[in-house]
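Justification of resources, computational component.

The compute hours requested in this renewal are based largely on the per-chain cost of generating structure records like the one below. Each record pairs the submitted sequence with a full structure-token output. That output is archived, and it is also reused by downstream analysis tasks.
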Amino acid sequence: MTNKARGGCLCGTIRFQFELPTLWCAHCHCSLCRRAHGAGVVTWVGVASTGFVITTGEESLTRYRSSTEALRSFCSQCGSTLFFESQKWPGEVHVALANVSTAIDRLPARHVFTENHADWIPLWDITTMKNRVH
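The structure output for this chain reads:
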């Protein structure tokens, strides 16, 4: 494994990289993440902001303040939701794992904000889906 991971948006306009090791990886069930991504659960990987770089397309990055302390970033060309930054976690950039195209150094370790989970994803599915092959 290299010491960097890379990724980008759906259309390829925005490309980024970050240094490994990552800080954490988790599945978020909060309503803001669900609505921003149009998904029942969003998997994020936390990285140090000092090792995070947008390598191309920064001019196409649009930022949206989803709360007083949080900033979400997405591609203005294809709409891919890419990053989350918050005053609650200074020095971190949260990267949507679905947009990372290379391996990272860990698997998701937990589910967070489960008290806000979508009613149409029963929480028991979280544990029974582990290691399921489709």
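The beta strands are 4-8, 15-19, 24-28, 42-48, 52-56, 61-65, 70-75, 81-86, 92-96, 110-112. The chain has one domain: 4-121.
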